[in-house]
Write a structure and sequence with these properties.
The chain has nine helices and seven strands. It is α/β, with parallel strands linked by helices. It has two domains: about 40 residues, no CATH class; about 190 residues, Rossmann fold (3-Layer(aba) Sandwich), CATH 3.40.50. A five-stranded parallel beta sheet has the order 1-7-6-2-3, sandwiched between helices. Helix 4 packs across helix 5 and helix 5 packs parallel to helix 7.
Length: about 230
């Protein structure tokens, strides 16, 4: 047995890796989430469904081609715990890994038509404080699986707004109405882009992102790691 493997086994004995969702020790072959919690994840399976509930969320609000989410989000469920870890607890690698898993579900379907992935941006001050953009991590994972490039210098956030978690739908819409802008639009001219977010609730953030593109000659779709069901 290699020394590195012996050291790893020794450290695992006293400092076991814990499941990011339930906090229990994880076994061999598991990375961030234990098998039990993986089995409890609520997949949406909306990816090839036309006029699905994600797409309906943007009816009359934004012109999109497709929209889907990997998991359903509910308060207190495993998805919420994982998103909190990814967003606030430094689990950026888990964001990438979940993006890869999401990408596997998107393979060999209408999502292969995507040219570029564009994550919902953070304001530079928030990015500096957090150290990473969780939506970009998710986009990187999806891009790695689908072979799509992630672009971060076209859609930018111009205002450092406050958290949206305790706002109602109208308050969210007003809070994000004009906080995004675009640049370097020549990079996506005539292309099909997918805006990537961690979780879609009311859809106000994505709507504001799409608004920032104005009348640019592009096709826009939406990918979210999670969405609320209702």
């Amino acid at each position: 047995m290699k020394i590195s493997k012996i050291c790893s086994s020794f450290l695992q004995l006293f400092y076991p890796k814990l499941c990011a969702a339930c906090g229990r020790p994880i076994g061999d072959g598991e990375t961030h989430i234990c098998r039990h919690c993986i089995s409890q994840l609520s997949h949406t399976w909306l990816h090839e469904e036309k006029d699905n509930l994600m797409e309906q969320r943007f009816y009359g609000r934004a012109d999109i081609a497709f929209a889907t989410a990997y998991l359903f989000f509910e308060k207190g469920n495993i998805t919420q715990a994982l998103l909190h870890r990814i967003k606030y607890d430094g689990f950026s690698n888990m964001g990438v890994d979940m993006g890869k898993a999401f990408g596997q579900e998107l393979k060999n379907g209408r999502w292969e038509d995507i040219d570029f992935l564009i994550p919902v941006p953070l304001h530079p001050k928030k990015l500096q404080k957090r150290g990473y953009n969780q939506s970009e991590c998710i986009a990187k994972g999806i891009g790695e699986t689908l072979g799509k490039k992630v672009i971060t210098d076209v859609l930018i956030r111009t205002q450092n707004n406050t958290s949206q978690t305790k706002k109602n739908a109208e308050e969210r819409r007003m809070a994000v109405a004009d906080i995004f802008a675009t640049q370097n639009l020549h990079k996506v001219e005539g292309k099909h882009i997918a805006i990537v977010d961690d979780v879609v609730t009311t859809g106000s953030t994505i709507e504001a992102c799409i608004k920032a593109f104005g009348k640019a000659n592009i096709k826009i779709s939406v990918l979210a790691l999670a969405c609320v069901e209702n």
